């Protein structure tokens, strides 16, 4: 059951016309990196709520969320226009199982994200020594435009102390972007273009996959990995190779 408490707005950081970061402070129950919570605002005397994943480390008392400004989205516009020190509602208790604690031991941990779904991976990658049980961690972030890669600087900082992390980007609607592939995750896996660039191959012997973001990407990628790479969906009651989080 949702237990609403007050959260104080620290700031709203506007990165692009469609993307912004929301920073809050609230006495929530400690969360695990990769989890999400619910945020609520009021509209016409009714509560509207959405789920958002934590971007910040579990050690950071300031809560960070990455939000897409939806053209006709009531709540995203309300969050976008919040003033510092404003009070909004947040669920006291975090939720979700898309955490590193739920991932079985493997040599290579693959993380695939689209758009703002990079958020939970940013939180997970700030876990430090808890990630040393993996030989390699490969983070793939797919966006529409180069300007949407708003966490690349954070990932570069993380790479300085997480030296077994490989980070690659995919841009779908712009061409000739240096160091980024062009296209979509499922197609780049099917053609093996992505793996050739990274230098590692996905297989059931060494790999575990985390998929987060656009439901079409999650569905298509998961189906491809099951049908053509002999991977299985990971469940608590039935361990496998693919963990998923749908982002809407």
Automatic annotation (TrEMBL):
This enzyme's EC code(s): 1.18.1.2, 1.19.1.1
Cofactor requirement: FAD
UniProt xrefs under SUPFAM superfamilies: Ferredoxin reductase-like, C-terminal NADP-linked domain (SSF52343), Riboflavin synthase domain-like (SSF63380)
GO molecular function: ferredoxin-NADP+ reductase activity; nucleotide binding
Limits of the FAD-binding FR-type domain: 2-101
Keywords from the UniProt entry: FAD, Flavoprotein, NADP, Nucleotide-binding, Oxidoreductase
A Pfam family this chain is assigned to: FAD_binding_6
GO biological process: cellular response to oxidative stress; heme catabolic process
InterPro entries on file: Cbr1-like_FAD-bd_dom (IPR008333), FAD-bd_FR_type (IPR017927), FNR_bac (IPR033892), FNR_nucleotide-bd (IPR039261), FNR_type-1 (IPR051930), OxRdtase_FAD/NAD-bd (IPR001433), Riboflavin_synthase-like_b-brl (IPR017938)
Catalytic activity reported: reduced [flavodoxin] + NADP(+) = oxidized [flavodoxin] + NADPH + 2 H(+); 2 reduced [2Fe-2S]-[ferredoxin] + NADP(+) + H(+) = 2 oxidized [2Fe-2S]-[ferredoxin] + NADPH
Family the UniProt entry places it in: Belongs to the ferredoxin--NADP reductase type 1 family.
Record-given protein name: Flavodoxin/ferredoxin--NADP reductase
């Amino acid at each position: 059951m949702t237990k609403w408490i007050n959260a104080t707005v620290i700031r709203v950081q506007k990165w692009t016309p469609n993307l912004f970061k929301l920073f809050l402070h609230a006495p929530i129950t400690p969360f695990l990196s990769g989890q999400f919570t619910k945020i609520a605002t009021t509209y016409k005397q009714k509560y509207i709520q959405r789920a958002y994943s934590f971007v910040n480390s579990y050690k950071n008392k300031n809560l960070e969320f990455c939000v897409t400004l939806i053209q006709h989205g009531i709540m995203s516009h309300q969050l976008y226009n919040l003033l510092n020190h404003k009070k909004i509602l947040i669920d006291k208790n975090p939720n979700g199982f898309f955490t590193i604690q739920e991932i079985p031991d493997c040599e290579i941990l693959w993380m695939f994200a689209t758009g703002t779904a990079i958020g939970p991976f940013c939180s997970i990658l700030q876990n430090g020594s808890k990630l040393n049980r993996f030989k390699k961690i490969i983070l793939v972030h797919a966006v529409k435009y180069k300007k949407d890669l708003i966490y690349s600087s954070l990932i570069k900082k993380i790479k300085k102390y997480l030296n077994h992390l490989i980070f690659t980007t995919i841009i779908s609607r712009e061409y000739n972007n240096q160091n980024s592939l062009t296209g979509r995750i499922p197609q780049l896996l099917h053609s093996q273009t992505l793996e050739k660039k990274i230098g590692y191959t996905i297989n059931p012997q060494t790999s575990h996959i985390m998929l987060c973001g656009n439901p079409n990407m999650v569905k298509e990628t998961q189906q491809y990995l099951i049908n053509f790479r002999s991977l299985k969906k990971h469940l608590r009651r039935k361990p496998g190779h693919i963990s998923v989080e749908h982002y809407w």
